[in-house]
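User: Can you help me understand a structure? I only have the sequence.
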Amino acid sequence: MNPGTKKLAAIVLLIIISLSVILASLVILPSPVKHAITPEPQLVDLTNLSENITRLTRNSGADEDPVWSADGGRIFFESRPDTGVGCYAPECYICAMDADGSNLTMLANGTNPVLSSDKVFFKQVNYPYIDLWVMNTDGSDKKKLTTLNSTLCCSPTLSPDGSKICYYTRYDTGYYWVKWNDDTLTRFDHEPQPGRQDVAIMGGEKHADIWVMDVSRENKTKISSDTDTTWFYPSLEWSPDGKRILFQTSTLSCDNPIENVDIWVMDADGSNKKRQTNHSGYDMNPIWSPDGNKIVYMSGNVSNLDVWTMKPDGSDKKQLTNGAQNTGFDWSPDMGKIAYITWLTKDPKAREIRIMDADGSNKELLLSIPRDPSRVIMSSLAWSPDGSKIAFSYFAIDVENSDIYVIDVPAMDEDKSLMR
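Assistant: Let's start by predicting it. Here is the structure, written out as tokens:
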């Protein structure tokens, strides 16, 4: 081999060794350096989409469930610290901050804050138990109220005055349902073993009893029995005056291939039960208006849930949206408007927050996030007490953290073209 050929071979060998070192370093580099080379997906900063939106939290973990204080000066929420990619620490905290995001304070270990008068009620999940607590709004005078078995209990809900708890206890009936690929249903008195290629879904039949008790665990009373909850986890909603409770139950029938989930109402002692909807699909997530004279709810099927309203006796039903997938809503304090989160199926390019009059008219766009809407989650819409702002939490499925934002509502009346 002549000297020139040797030199060329040495250069090629050196290049190969260098490339090998680089590739090996990429494999063993700590994750922060890897991320610098191949950045992970990041949340869109929503403040870049509208001049009327403010980002309140920047925690690397999850900030969720914003709740306004009665005077609108503070926001309470649940916060979880981030402990790694896609992982959250089991410790959750109830935090509070001023409405502009300042003076952030960690008040207690817990989740799901609910404000009643000058108290904050919250949960601590210590599987298999759920502990219900109360404290002052500054975090002082913490007291455990009761403990529930979370393997049996779901949807524990506090009465408006904070004196009572309403919840479900679920149980297996021993029956099983199979929904076949042709959308027909069959009920079995034993666990079936059908071929997977023939089955769309299969599950054990689950019913539930509904209970009410004092927060002191006294006066525990079963107010409803044998509620079918096979395919869903129903919600319980006290009326603003605490006298009535909304709940849902499903009707499964081998003669009807569409599961029928309906909304019912009853007095807080379980009397005067009345079915309010009878739509052959899903009627879910009812919310009372602040004065208790109307109910807003979602109705439709899995691919298309619209916003409806009705009176508490089930009359005067009105469909407010059409042809959209809606995932959340809330009444304005004066009951004149409804805010809702939507994914327009005719133009499925963004997740949006819109507002409309309570009769469905005058729909206006508040915020549009230009991203695959199936990957974007916005939740916990909460109007400020004066109706001038809406707080919400936002995260994307492929991103680690979620943040709380506030968007200005009155600006919509001044300028219809808010989006940049």
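Now, to help you interpret it: The chain is about 10% helix and 50% strand. Residues 2-41, 411-420 have pLDDT under 50 and may be disordered. Let me know which part you'd like to focus on.
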